[in-house]
Specification:
Elements lengths: L8 E5 L8 E6 L12 E6 L2 E7 L14 H10 L4 E10 L9 E2 L3 E5 L24 H13 L4 E2 L3 E5 L7 H9 L4 E3 L2 H10 L3 E11 L14 H25 L18
Parallel strand pairs: 1-4, 1-5, 5-11, 6-8, 7-9, 9-10
Antiparallel strand pairs: 2-3, 3-4, 5-10, 6-11
Length: about 270
């Protein structure tokens, strides 16, 4: 990689985030783990070099269970990325978390199956610590930025990641809600774990578009419609753009968090 292709901050997300880049260039990146979801766009954001990749591909051609998460993370690593924002469209599992709200998750529950979720298949064995899966320093920056922008946000929450591409049954959704989990999504795992194995800081911003199936029938909660999801998604993208701009401007030049040294005591 030459210096023009290098970046310090990465973003995974949908195609609506290209608009706030300056001096944009696109690059094909090939990794030992295969091809990532798409080309990586590198540009300036608030004077910082930022790399962006649509995790589902530009045409949203990759369903969540077919995304090459290892290639995506490693491509960012090859570009020099140290901090990753992982926003994702999500459903709410709790009545007080409403469509249009953001949740800055601090925990996850994995309900996927068969996804390749480690770079360490042997002979080197790593048992990565995941008690606190999301970077505490990046979370503080995003929370502070959301507060300054008066965005409706929740400073913590557990996201349960389902396999997809199907949605949850009503019984599954009720179970997730009964556990006290806040958010349901299909892409957070293994993205966050793979970033941790590469000692990259990672933060999730869950963008709530609808209530999950288990909440239907409760007072003031209406069944989800495609039109409503599209409308809320558009509004969320505008707020997310403002949030990312502000948060990126606050990221320190030098990292000093646990993510940076997580492999030190993880090898057997």
């Amino acid at each position: 990689m030459n210096d023009n292709q290098k970046a310090e901050i990465g973003i995974f997300g949908g195609s609506g985030f290209y608009s706030f880049f300056e001096k944009v260039e696109e690059y094909d990146v090939y990794t030992p783990y295969g091809s990532p979801s798409d080309k990586i766009t590198v540009g300036l954001v608030e004077g910082r070099k930022v790399a962006f990749m649509p995790r589902h591909g530009k045409d949203h051609s990759l369903p969540p269970h077919r995304i090459n998460y290892r290639a995506n993370i490693f491509a960012m690593k090859m570009l020099g990325v140290k901090c990753i924002f992982g926003p994702c469209v999500s459903g709410s599992l709790q009545p007080h978390i409403k469509p249009g709200h953001f949740v800055i998750c601090d925990q996850f529950v994995d309900r996927t199956k068969g996804r390749i979720d480690t770079f360490y298949d042997g002979p080197k064995t790593i048992h990565i610590a995941m008690a606190e899966p999301y970077c505490p320093e990046l979370r503080k920056i995003v929370i502070e930025s959301a507060k300054e922008l008066n965005i409706d946000y929740h400073p913590e929450g557990t996201v349960v990641i389902i396999q997809g591409p199907r949605f949850s049954t009503r019984s599954e959704s009720k179970w997730y809600s009964s556990q006290g989990w806040e958010v349901v999504n299909m892409t957070q795992y293994p993205e966050v774990c793979l970033a941790r194995e590469q000692e990259m800081c990672y933060v999730n911003i869950s963008l709530i578009t609808d209530y999950d199936a288990g909440l239907e029938g409760q007072p003031e909660i209406k069944p989800v419609t495609v039109e409503e999801v599209v409308r809320v998604s558009s509004e969320n993208n505008k707020k997310l753009t403002a949030l990312l701009l502000k948060a990126i401007s606050k990221i320190p030049e030098e990292r000093d968090c646990t993510c940076l040294h997580i492999l030190k005591d993880s090898e057997i």
